[in-house]
Design a protein that fits this description.
heterotrimer; A mainly alpha (290); B mainly alpha (288); C alpha/beta (398); A: 290 residues; mainly alpha; ABC transporter involved in vitamin B12 uptake, BtuC; 73% helix; 3% strand; globular; C: 398 residues; alpha/beta; seven-stranded mixed β-sheet; five-stranded parallel β-sheet; 12 helices; 14 strands; elongated
């Protein structure tokens, strides 16, 4: 049982990492907690479902459509909800605006697709595969592998690509970045688009592995956010670390203790951490404590 | 008439919760999404105390203390973090408390809730209790509004607003920002707790399903509508957001999707409000 | 700080507000206006007009439950009125939406009883909201009947309540008996951590153990949980003969799907939530072979008649909730005919006399608590998303 539990934790961690990286990227660049991030995930999942059911597209184009939708919605959130509300010194208004965006997206999904849960047709991807003492599926393995590849690509992008470096510059010191000619709006857009892509993929992973609902983004979003905070918000490596930690805690406590208490455990971990180390495990770009 | 009394009571509850949220975190702009949890702590405090045959008035004190304690516990790890951060952390706190209420079945009755909660002394059982309770809730709401206004105009309130604008400067001037925020949060939580105790007594049945994150979001929405840190704005927001759905009852708005459209409109309104008037619908009061 | 005029203004404000609160507190001592007491009789129509209120979720997440009941009630009302109504006057039904929110349930209840002068209220859909409006009904002397609330603890809730649907305790018992009859000696219970799931879990465990079975463990999951693997991993290691799974459709589907992926070999035994198509939609072929309990319906002359007319009016087959709503209004009308009056007390007495009423949702006889113990249950099996009957009309033996 221990191997299965550990493996479950790793896969869950990979999923949370996709979500956490999105939060951390946006926070690093825009100093903003995007409440609608979980709902971007939901949009990606539903787009994939819609393409496959309504237009009978094969998986690959549906996936691409989902990714495009995720990036698009994220950009719309940035342009319509965040930017109009962003004012010098007022950190709260854009965050509340993203709450509004979240509500709109959930209501919209409810109106278009109904509240009943659905599932992405996984077919062969969901057949159980036996790897020694562990049971898994191709879908889960894809999440693991895909998530790792994506994270690697992101890391390389941030380190070597011009725009990636620009993102790190803005995250480090926005004023300085502006003086050397980096346009904060353009960088914010890139960060949002990237987060949207990752969120869409996370949504598809969840849609395959469990189910789709208009409100599916809420709990996953919260877990991803907790992971990002745990790891040190603004720090991508921290996000991954935090995600693995949260994934492991959920899996192990759920398996050995009781999953009825899961929200309590997760929040308890977060609260303890904030009590003793509010900046998270790894130093973030900008310390969270004032 | 009990229909109008019960709507009136719910408006007073909404006003009390909105005003207490402003006291707790509106002035310092450290908005919390855990307010329904303090409301719940007060309700459960009252229900459990009276279940052990305590005098209802004493039980109300328990409500206040339980919620204040909750506020204190909430404040400890979280007030060192920034405002926008605080929002999400308090969300988690509310979820955790709800989880505790559901799981500690032997203590709280779990999801079954607690029934047969006693009436306040002086209220005769019968069809008229709403009439009496309306006056109690009205009095409580008025007291909280007065409290809110007094704080708004006091040195304490000024210090809180200063903290919102620039914590470092406030600290440099000799006021401890964290301690200020802790006091505000505890006081606001205590007020929410009192509302909870009265609420439990009125409905005679409470369950964890009432005190959820959605409820916290609604309370936050009432404050945002009227303007953060603006007491009269909070009153306005609470009245509008409570009376409106009830008013719509008589309009017979059809369609199973009505609630979803309502939700969508709220969300769009929120975005619009933040873009155009982040200070809330009522004009900002400059006379402090 | 504050200058002189500001201080004065503040003082005046505090004074004014304190005066208001003192006035309010003082008024508490005064008796309420005279027209408050007791049930409001209908001032306009004749006193034998039956006015019924329905309070339930007509919009929101649980809307389908409320709308199904409403459809059934509408049909019943049309039928009753076509046959001359009650006491010579047509029956009036008023519907109010609660969105399954407790506060809205209270105001909805008050509205139908005050403004619309209903003497009977049909509601609510959830056990929690029923517990919220029960004391109100008791206080106002209004008859409360819930078509579908099923929590076992409503029997001992302390206020008078009639129910059309059998208590969950019976459902769990039937399931336990079935499991024992299959020779399944060990179980693990995976349940939704709310009132319904916990109630079924407790009742099932009691009955299963009483019959000689062994409960190896149980684990609760949040409603709408997405990742049930940790709990399933734990259950898998216990190797039970079968898994009892009182979960709502959203998470039940995920649980069955992920159980298959984890290679869990145990059979599943479910509750009435498994009649929802959502579960097969999520879990696909993994649901094949799952057996579940369901209040018996869909049989008998009354049902056939009802289903035919329902199909004609609403263009679809009725579900259990619609049949329950239909029966609810019909038994009330029958009681009103027996009593010759429409006030709540007379109705309650007459309703208690309901014996073997053959309704669309089964045979209805109320016991002294207002619960129905005459209904039977079906055991059904899922195959390719369709339910087939395994064993029908299992009577509840107390």
């Amino acid at each position: 049982m221990i191997w299965q539990a550990l493996y479950n934790g790793v896969v869950t961690g990979a999923l949370y990492a996709l979500v956490a990286l999105g939060y951390t990227l946006i926070y690093g660049v825009a100093r903003l907690i995007n409440f609608a991030h979980g709902d971007v995930m939901m949009v990606g999942a539903y787009t994939c479902l819609f393409c496959m059911e309504r237009f009978h597209l094969p998986p690959a184009p549906a996936l691409l459509a989902a990714i495009a939708a995720g990036a698009l919605i994220a950009l719309l959130i940035e342009r319509l909800a965040v930017r109009p509300a962003a004012r010098k010194g007022d950190r709260l208004a854009p965050v509340i605006s993203t709450i509004g965006a979240s509500v709109v997206l959930q209501a919209g999904a409810g109106l278009l697709f109904g509240a009943a849960a659905r599932s992405l047709p996984g077919g062969k991807l969901l057949d159980p595969i036996y790897l020694g003492p562990i049971q898994t599926t191709l879908a889960q393995l894809s999440t693991l592998v895909g998530g790792s590849v994506l994270t690697l690509v992101l890391a390389l992008f941030l380190k070597f690509h011009l725009y990636g470096q620009a993102i790190r510059a803005v995250a480090d010191d926005p004023t300085l970045a502006e003086t050397v000619g980096i346009a904060p709006h353009r960088i914010a857009q890139i960060a949002f688009a990237l987060s949207g892509i990752m969120a869409a993929l996370a949504g598809i992973a969840v849609g395959l592995d469990s189910s789709l609902r208009p409100t599916m983004g809420y709990s996953l979003g919260f877990m991803g956010f907790t992971a990002a905070v745990l790891g040190g918000i603004g720090n991508p490596t921290g996000a991954i670390l935090g995600a693995m930690l949260v994934g492991m805690v959920s899996s192990l406590t759920g398996t050995y203790l009781s999953s009825a208490w899961l929200p309590g455990y997760v929040f308890g971990t977060l609260a303890l951490l904030l009590l003793f180390r509010p900046q998270g495990l790894l130093p973030g770009r900008k310390a969270v404590a004032t | 008439m009990t229909y109008y009394y019960s709507v009136g009571i719910l408006i007073c509850v909404a006003v009390s919760l909105a005003v207490s949220l402003n006291i707790a975190s509106g002035y310092s702009r450290h908005l919390s999404l855990a307010h329904a949890a303090f409301w719940g702590l007060g309700a459960y405090g009252f229900a459990l105390a009276t279940a052990h045959k305590w005098n209802p008035l004493l039980a109300l004190v328990v409500s206040v203390l339980a919620a204040a304690l909750g506020g204190l516990v909430a404040a400890a790890p979280t007030l060192r973090v920034r405002g926008d951060y605080f929002l999400v952390v308090t969300l988690g706190m509310g979820e955790a408390l709800n989880n505790v209420l559901v799981n500690l079945r032997s203590l709280t009755g779990g999801s079954n809730g607690l029934s047969n909660i006693v009436l306040l002394p002086g209220v005769k059982p019968g069809p008229n209790i709403d009439y009496y309770y309306l006056q109690v809730f009205l009095a409580a709401a008025v007291v909280m509004v007065v409290l809110g206004v007094l704080i708004q105009r006091s040195a304490f309130g000024q210090a809180l607003r200063a903290t919102a604008e620039d914590e470092e400067a406030t600290a440099a001037l000799g006021r401890n920002p964290t301690w200020l925020k802790v006091r505000a949060l505890t006081l606001g939580a205590a007020c929410a707790g009192l509302t909870g105790g009265l609420y439990a007594s009125w409905t005679s049945f409470i369950s964890p399903g009432i005190f959820t994150s959605s409820a916290s979001v609604l309370i936050l929405a009432t404050v945002l509508l009227g303007g953060i840190g603006n007491i009269w704005g909070a009153v306005f927001g609470a009245i509008v957001l409570t009376a409106l759905p009830e008013g719509l009852r008589f309009a017979h708005v059809p369609g199973a999707n009505a609630q979803l459209w309502q939700q969508m409109i709220y969300g769009l309104l929120l975005i619009l409000l933040m873009a155009v008037r982040p200070g809330g619908l009522l004009p900002a009061r400059s006379g402090r | 700080m504050l200058i002189g005029s500001q201080k004065r203004r503040r003082f005046h404000l505090a004074l004014a507000l304190s005066a208001c609160s003192a006035l309010a507190l003082g008024l508490m001592g005064c008796p309420p206006p005279a027209n408050q007491s007791g049930i409001s009789g209908s001032p306009s129509g004749p006193s034998t007009t039956l006015i019924v209120g329905f309070v339930g979720p007509l919009t929101g997440d649980a809307a389908s439950f409320g709308i199904s009941q409403k459809n059934g009630i509408e049909m019943a009302r049309d039928e009753i009125n076509a046959a001359g109504g009650v006491g010579g006057s047509p029956v009036t039904v008023v519907y109010e939406d609660t969105q399954l929110d407790q506060n809205k349930a209270i105001t909805a209840f008050n509205k139908v009883t005050d403004s619309d002068k209903a003497t009977v209220v049909l509601g609510e859909t959830s056990s929690a909201n029923t517990k919220a409006i029960g004391p109100l009904a008791q206080r106002k002397g209004v008859l409360l009947l819930s078509p579908i609330a099923s929590s076992a603890n409503l029997t001992t809730s302390g206020f008078p309540l009639f129910r059309i649907s059998p208590s969950d305790a019976f459902q769990a018992r039937i399931a336990a008996q079935y499991a024992l009859s299959r020779g399944w000696k060990t179980t693990a219970i995976l349940y939704t951590n709310d009132e319904w799931g916990t109630g079924l879990k407790d009742a099932f465990a009691t009955d299963f153990k009483a019959g000689g079975g062994q409960v190896l463990g149980d684990t609760g999951v949040e409603p709408k949980a997405q990742d049930i693997r940790p709990s399933l991993t734990k259950i898998k290691s216990l190797k039970p003969a079968f898994i009892y799974i009182p979960m709502h459709p959203d998470e039940a589907g995920v649980a069955i799907k992920q159980a298959k992926q984890l290679g869990i070999a145990s059979s599943f035994l479910g509750a009435d939530s498994f009649s929802e198509p959502t579960i097969a939609k999520i879990a696909g072929s993994a649901t094949d072979g799952v057996v579940y309990t369901m209040p018996a319906s869909g049989f008998g002359a009354a049902y056939d008649q009802f289903a035919k007319q329902y199909q004609a009016k609403f263009n679809g087959a009725p579900n259990y909730n619609a049949a329950a709503g239909y029966d609810a209004l019909k038994v009330i009308a029958a009681a009103a005919k027996r009593a010759g009056k429409t006030d709540a007390t007379a109705l309650a007495t007459a309703l208690k006399q309901t014996k073997n009423y053959e309704g669309a949702s089964g045979s209805i006889t109320f016991d002294t608590n207002g619960d129905v113990t005459s209904k039977a249950f079906d055991l059904k099996k899922l195959q390719n998303g369709q339910s087939t009957l395994v064993q029908g009309h299992i009577a509840i033996n107390k």
